[in-house]
Write a structure and sequence with these properties.
This protein is mostly helical. The chain has helices spanning 25-46, 52-59, 63-91, 93-111, 116-144, 150-167, 170-175, 182-203, 221-225, 229-260, 265-293, 297-315, 326-335, 340-347, 354-384, 391-412, 420-424. Mean pLDDT is 83; it is low at 1-20 and 210-216.
């Protein structure tokens, strides 16, 4: 059963800015530069997971306190997703995306530069700047690629981001244990991100005349996007599917294996990195399948089932019951289905609010991560009591994520099918 959803009467018809007639090389080049931005922001999002012990020792934080520090990223990320989408619809990408990249660069450098308060402020700035990465990349892809390639382009975008997430674990773990200190890593990463900001500014085409109206109308597109019930369902479904990676694997996965399974640090890092590596392959492949089939929901449901089975197989059997690495890769691959609602939300809303549609779903998705990250740290600490983090504690804690995947499947039942096969019919 599908929930009935139509565009608001005031919404302009689709077809305005999407590159339906062919490829737009200028925007595709800018999209490629923005992929570097997205790669870096995902790297620094996941990097703290391989330096949890260093952060705890240096800053004197409890498990709950560390979860709260890292969770600050998602508060500003979710809020600024709205700002980033609206700013691109109003002023275009040439100004908005480089500014976001520069804010991320400053936040990265601050995180490793000083005391706890500076790390907190840096983490907030990281989230604020990072919010422009995916929204910007999808905005540019929407202008550069024909509509029939949209899900594929979004999948490739997330593929690059997750490659950054994998390197934020495996490569950063190698760097901070013999090459540079963990503090120096953040400074160098900040400089690299600032260089990317300059490249994006130089490579992005000048914006066309805004279609969003006059002064005071910057947030007006959200009345269209958030007035559509399908937008909320897209955000809820995608958000629930993101939690096993954003809060589970990329934040607590290494701790789960080192403290719960008593695995060596380097092996735990390698295994945890298989989840974002799975995304690297899953996002473009599942996006291509959704475009090739002309239907979004069969691929979405297939990913949800695979996520559910692989998550349960990781959490509940004893360590070593299944071959290592394979289940984490399958979980990551199937998690690429979380990107399909990003295509759906753009297709159930008019072309004139493409940036705001992406901003809205990013807001909804990462509000959930912002709330879940500190709550999960608190929940683990409560389950552990005075006994410390054990396999049983993590198993009970991660069961919440399994329930979330089931709920995502229920929500997906109410999503409207928007694939090309349905439109052609």
């Amino acid at each position: 059963m599908n929930m009935v959803s139509t565009l608001p009467p005031s919404a302009p018809p689709s077809g305005g800015v999407q590159a339906k007639g062919g490829f737009q090389p200028g925007y595709i080049l800018a999209w490629a530069f923005c992929l570097l931005f997205y790669f870096l922001q995902y790297s620094v999002r996941s990097a703290p997971s391989v330096m949890m012990d260093e952060l705890t020792a240096t800053m004197g934080l409890t498990t709950a306190g560390l979860g709260s520090l890292l969770g600050l990223y998602y508060y500003t990320y979710s809020a600024c997703s709205l700002i980033s989408g609206a700013s691109m619809d109003r002023w275009g990408a040439k100004l908005a995306i480089p500014v976001g990249t520069l804010v991320l660069a400053i936040g990265i450098a601050m995180f490793g530069a000083g005391p706890v308060w500076m790390a907190e402020l840096g983490r907030l700035l990281q989230g604020a700047g990072a919010a422009f990465a995916f929204v910007g990349a999808v905005y540019l892809a929407s202008h550069g690629f024909p509509a029939r390639y949209l899900a594929t382009a979004i999948g490739v975008t997330q593929c690059v981001g997750m490659l950054g997430g994998a390197m934020g674990q495996s490569t950063v773990a190698w760097l901070i244990h013999g090459i540079v200190t963990w503090r120096s890593f953040w400074v160098y990463a900040g400089v690299a991100t600032a260089i990317v900001a300059v490249a994006i500014f130089l490579g992005t085409p000048r914006p066309e005349k805004s279609a969003s109206g006059g002064q005071g109308s910057m947030l007006a597109p959200y009345r269209i996007v958030l007035g559509n019930p399908q937008s909320w369902l897209c955000g809820l479904c995608s958000g629930l599917l993101f939690l096993p990676t954003t809060v589970g694997s990329m934040t607590w996965g290494v701790s789960f294996m080192t403290h719960g399974w008593h695995m060596s640090y380097h092996e735990a890092v390698s295994r945890a990195a298989m989840v974002p590596i799975g995304w690297v392959f899953g996002c473009p492949i599942l996006g291509y399948l959704a475009d090739h089939l002309g239907r979004r929901k069969p691929v979405l449901f297939g990913g949800i089932v695979a996520m559910l089975l692989s998550s349960a197989a990781i959490i509940y059997p004893p360590p070593g019951f299944f071959p290592p690495y394979i289940l984490a890769f399958i979980l990551g691959f199937a998690s690429g289905a979380a990107m399909i609602p990003y295509s759906v939300i753009k297709e159930v809303n008019p072309d004139s609010v493409k940036g705001s549609a992406t901003g809205a779903i990013n807001f909804l998705v990462f509000v959930m991560s912002a709330v879940a990250s500190p709550l999960f740290g608190w929940f683990l600490q409560r389950l552990a009591g005075a006994g410390g983090l054990t396999e049983t504690v993590f198993r009970e804690g991660f069961s919440v994520g399994v329930a979330g995947i089931v709920l995502a499947g229920v929500v997906a039942l109410f999503l409207r099918e928007t694939g090309a096969a349905v439109r052609a019919g």
